[in-house]
Amino acid sequence: MAFEKLLYFDTETGGLNPELNPVLSLSGCIYNLNKDLGQYESEEFNFFTNPPSDYVIETSALTLNNMTLDFIRQQESYSQTYEKLVNLFDKYIDKYNRSDKFMLIAYKSDFDVSFLEAFFKYHKNNFLFSYISHYTLDVYELVKHIYYLYNLPLEDLKLSTVCKYFGIEHEAHTSIGDVHALLQLYNKLTTTYMKGF
């Protein structure tokens, strides 16, 4: 399947466990191939949300994400955010067409997908993979491959560290900042290192 619809995606969350901790923000940039023009058109989204009180929001997660509980409680409800996200996905994807899906691109994608899937399931929707492929493109795995292959002098493989090495501005621990950095990093890696692959 040739993917004509790309979803660069990131979440910020209230902890590390998608069963106990909620999504606090979801951001992405959708690239949709316009076949008539032969180029991608893009749309960006950045949703903050106020999760239900039965979720646990870890203090450490708020500090890391530079958020406060007061800020979170002022955002739109979980269900409102869910409806906005599904409406946006429906704009691009025919969920009844098994060949029409986003290729999700993320950094450590398993984490983001696990929280996105839990977000859908909280709203009684078990069909996230009607919108995205089971096969995600994890830029972290690409970085790891290039790191070992080219012996890059990196202290660690955190997104902020990798972006600094490649001269990419990164507003760390905001989901939209991560998406912007991810997009630039992926383009940098594929144009600089992956030509021969």
Mean pLDDT across the residues is 94
CATH architectural arrangement: 2-Layer Sandwich
Could you give the order of strands across the largest sheet?
Answer: 3-2-1-4-5
Cα-to-Cα separation, first versus last residue: 19 Å
Structural class: alpha/beta
Order of helix and strand elements from N to C terminus: EEEHHHEHEHHH
Sheet having the most strands:
5 strands, mixed
CATH superfamily: Ribonuclease H-like superfamily/Ribonuclease H
Note the quaternary state here: single chain
Number of strands: 5
Beta-strand portion reads 15-25%
CATH topology: Nucleotidyltransferase, domain 5
Number of domains: 1
Helix proportion range: 25-40%
Radius of gyration: 17 Å
Shape: globular
Q: Which class in CATH terms? A: Alpha Beta
With helices defined by DSSP (H or I, 4 residues minimum), what is the helix count?
Answer: 7
Give unreliable regions as ranges: none
